Amino acid sequence: MHTDVLVIGGGNAALCAALTAAEAGARVLLLESAPRALRGGNSAHTRNLRCMHDAPQDVLVEAYPEEEFWQDLLKVTGGRTNEHLARLTIRASSTCRGWMRRHGVRFQPPLSGALHVARTNAFFMGGGKALVNAYYRSAERLGVQVRYEAPVQRLEIENGRFVAAWAGEERITARACVLAAGGFESNREWLREAWGQNARGEWPADQFLIRGTRFNQGVLLRHLLESHGAERIGDPTQAHMVAIDARAPLYDGGICTRIDCVSLGIVVNREAKRFYDEGEDFWPKRYAIWGRLVAQQPGQTAWSVIDAKAAGRFMPPVFPGVVADSLPALARALGLDEATFLQTVNDYNAACQGGRFDHTVLDDCHTQGLQPPKTHWARPLDTPPYTAYALRPGVTFTYLGLKTDDTAAVRFAGQPSDNLFVAGEMMAGNVLGQGYTAGVGMSIGTAFGRIAGAGAATAAGHATTVRDESEATA
């Protein structure tokens, strides 16, 4: 089979690429490895898009200027980011919603009491599944051919140019190709290889749960890196990794398995000891570091412990916690050493300094003389009943990927391909070297999906550009 533009992948970035190329008049074929009912990859589990804006706009309150967005990203990545590509993503996030609406995406009104995300993030009406469905409907109207259950195992590349893709026994040629097939988070063997064995003789990756799709096996990513020598970016152990309920399913648990009360209490490991500052920063900026922190603990397990004062202050998870009327009873119920647990809680309680508790700001409730400290929202655990949630690492997507530039081209030996492009999780490591802040994955996928789609259409002989579309009057 032959087409103008071949898009490999079926999530947000792939769909943005396919729609952009089709708008330019290109014939587009999209290959999704999942069956139709599970289409959309991790994008089906998303909720929002982080957006720069200089004044209040439709579903965004106040302002979130470029420099603040950049500083937020710089902080969570610890400087492990390409500033040029990061700022490209940031600027694109300010103008993409008009285009998204034209393709059927709807946004909901600003959320109240949502820890600042009403200022920074635009939420999809119906969540990521509704966004994915809207894009597929628009793709159908534009004539994009979609094949489900069509995983691609390998590519033919000559002198840095895409020639063909193999989906099973079928060879598909195209004038240009966009790779948007996700990371390798569902490939247990690759995770084991990346994380290795720790000093306790454990294989941490064996305890990881996958928050999203089971179909992100990293087959094409590894093929590009090992068989074709594509330039790589990122650390294979770095990922969007969240502390989720230990009872979550192996795949597709999504948002409802996240535990969001960490900043309202303390977190202890199997040794009944704290190991990190639970109140370091606002939860949307820090929630995605906790999976990695738990992965470094014995048994890759921990417990988030709160008292009655935290009730109603966080999004409740799908499973109830372990509840006890006393701290000793809670320790016994969790199987933790009672004396050590009580010592940990007593030391924490004694270190809490008085202040005005306010979970919507970086308040002055902190610990003193305690290691690790709790910088904000530190209140004694002294009001029964007490609740604990068991935590395990939940991997959303991995950051090892293909190096690219502002054209979204895949690079070989220092040279960008003129007809092979990459978007989404397969290149997110260019912007996210580590850490995460809520909604930025969708910002990256949307920006680079559209850039890759435009580049592929141009390479196929259909000139196009990614237009800025003001939201000022939307």
UniProtKB/TrEMBL annotation:
Cofactor(s), by name: FAD
Which residues are in the FAD-dependent oxidoreductase 2 FAD-binding domain?
4-432
Which InterPro entries would you find in this protein's record?
Answer: CobZ, FAD-dep_OxRdtase_2_FAD-bd, FAD-oxidoreductase_2, FAD/NAD-bd_sf, Succ_DH/fumarate_Rdtase_cat_sf
Please indicate if the UniProt record lists Flavoprotein as a keyword. yes
For this chain, one GO molecular function annotation is: oxidoreductase activity
Q: Which Pfam families match?
A: FAD_binding_2
Query: Which branch of life, at top level?
Result: Bacteria
Q: Give the keywords, sorted.
A: FAD, Flavoprotein, Oxidoreductase
What is the protein name stated in its UniProt record?
A: FAD-dependent tricarballylate dehydrogenase TcuA
Name of the coding gene: tcuA
